[in-house]
Amino acid sequence: MLGLSKFFGKNNTDKRDQEISSILPLSSCNAECESCPTKFPSGLKIDEDSDIYNSAKPTDVHFIIPTSKTDWAHDATSTPNTVENAIVAWKDKYGDDIIKDGNFKVSTSSLPFDSVDPRCYKSEVNDVLILPFFVWLRKIEYQNVDQVLNKLIPLLIKLRDEGSELPKKIDNYRLFPAIEQAFIFLCSHRTRDKRCGITAPLMKKEMDAHLRDLELYRDVCDDRPNGINVSFINHVGGHKFAANVIIYMKTGEIIWLARCNPANAKPIIDETVLGGGKVWGDLVRVVQKTKSVEW
Q1: What's a single GO CC term here (predicted)?
Q2: pLDDT tens track for 92-147
Q3: CA spacing 20 to 30 A to 84: which of 72, 147, 179, 236?
């Protein structure tokens, strides 16, 4: 792990660590597992010099759309008459009314879609995972995104803040709590930058292996609760800082790490996800602590 204090000065590093530790604890353990056998290719060019802290904005709402893919078109959410494109249009039109100056993200993901429904192949209909609320909205049609999200997002904010129960439906669309204790997303968008396409699968390999050892790995057919899901998403920004790792925890932590390599995989699981959100200042782009969800 690079010591950025050498480049930016100890005072800046101390200030960064103080700010981070006021939100989430800093880990006293090594960020790299020395026994990890997996390495990135030697020719992979990663920016090891720039200051990455606060190089990303905190997230208020993140919509995750399943596609069963690991790579996408250059602009993964621009196809008309799709759920993801309708959500992008909704956030541009109504997002500021819901959360003033809020940051809404829309991502396509390798999470599986309903392959039995032909409408899902075109994403005219799809499920949507809404984070950090850990809620699935089932089979929303793109035409109805505006009317549903205008009701659902303020409702989720209210229910989370009050600790209230999640309703079973909204406008006849089913709502389900996500059963995982955490989601980990890795940018794998090779079409945008090959570094992401190379680093993400290697990171997932090491994370999944460790999760299997801990009996926390879950595949698409495993509905045991409290597992940890590691999936791919499209471009999130900062290719040069690959691997980018975005973590959502049901206990309310939202953590964006970068410059991660396979040797970081096990410590991220142990210290960050299972260790109460412990992080390493040199790897942090942004950290947040929100209210946990009770459903």
Answers
A1: cytosol
A2: 999 999 999 999 999 999 999 998 999 999 999 999 999 999 999 999 999 999 99
A3: 179
φ, ψ dihedrals at 225, nearest 5°: -75, 165
Mean pLDDT of the chain: 94
Burial of 168 (0-12, 13-18, 19+ CB in 10 A): exposed
Burial (CB < 10 A; 0-12, 13-18, 19+), residue 139, is middle
With cut-offs at 50, 70 and 90, classify the pLDDT of residue 9.
low
In angstroms, the Cα distances linking 21 to 29, 40, 144, 191 are 15, 30, 42, 36
* The total number of structural domains that make up the chain: 2
Query: Which of 151, 177, 203 is the C-terminal boundary of a domain?
Result: 177
pLDDT at position 115: 87
Same domain, 142 and 168: yes
Do 194 and 282 lie in one domain? The reply is: yes
By residue range, what is the domain housing residue 147? 61-131+135-177
- The residues pairing with 68 across neighbouring beta strands, listed in sequence order, are none
Q: Which percentage of the chain shows pLDDT scores above 90?
A: 90
d(CA 205, CA 102): 34
Question: Is 11 a member of any domain?
Answer: no
Q: What is the pTM of this model?
A: 0.95
Q: Is residue 1 in a domain?
A: no
Q: What count of residues does the chain have?
A: 295
- pLDDT tens for each residue of 185-240: 999 999 999 999 999 999 999 999 999 999 999 887 788 999 999 999 999 999 89
- Residue 229: CATH number of its domain: 3.40.30.10
Q: Are residues 196 and 243 in the same domain?
A: yes
